[in-house]
């Protein structure tokens, strides 16, 4: 269910001018999918069911890792941590939560922001001795 909702959300975000759609980084035999968006893009029901704060000042970071070396590119459970900082270098430790639904594994964290604020993300991802990388990206958030 969450995978279907996330897919629908990503399609919706692709048509919104101020939000970037899902992005992907390939590292060895792994595809790291990530997206950052305002939490108000989630319906109140979805946000409540996953314990996500729905607010015009809260962003969501969603990360999933797929093993492209196996048939069907299954998701893998990873160790994940990260920080977010704005242009004034205010740092926030991201508290990722693992969400498992059917065969899907997602890692979700919340980040506060102000209107028209760009946030830099540094996310460390480890999987056994096969993956040890850092994902870096930035996202600009807007208040609705």
TrEMBL record:
<protein>
    <submittedName>
        <fullName>DUF4426 domain-containing protein</fullName>
    </submittedName>
</protein>
<dbReference type="InterPro" id="IPR025218">
    <property type="entry name" value="DUF4426"/>
</dbReference>
<dbReference type="Pfam" id="PF14467">
    <property type="entry name" value="DUF4426"/>
</dbReference>
<feature type="signal peptide">
    <location>
        <begin position="1"/>
        <end position="21"/>
    </location>
</feature>
<keyword id="KW-0732">Signal</keyword>
<feature type="domain" description="DUF4426">
    <location>
        <begin position="24"/>
        <end position="144"/>
    </location>
</feature>
């Amino acid at each position: 269910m969450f995978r279907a909702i996330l897919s629908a959300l990503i399609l919706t975000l692709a048509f919104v001018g101020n939000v970037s759609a899902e992005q992907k980084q390939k590292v060895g035999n792994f595809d790291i999918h990530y997206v950052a968006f305002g939490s108000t893009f989630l319906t109140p029901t979805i946000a409540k069911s996953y314990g996500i704060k729905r607010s015009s000042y809260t962003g969501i970071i969603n990360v999933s890792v797929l093993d492209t070396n196996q048939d069907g590119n299954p998701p893998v459970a990873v160790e994940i941590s990260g920080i977010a900082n704005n242009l004034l270098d205010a740092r926030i430790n991201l508290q990722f939560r693992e969400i498992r639904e059917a065969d899907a594994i997602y890692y979700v964290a919340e980040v506060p922001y102000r209107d028209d604020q760009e946030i830099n993300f540094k996310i460390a991802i480890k999987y056994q001795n096969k993956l040890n990388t850092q994902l870096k990206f930035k996202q600009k958030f807007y208040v609705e």
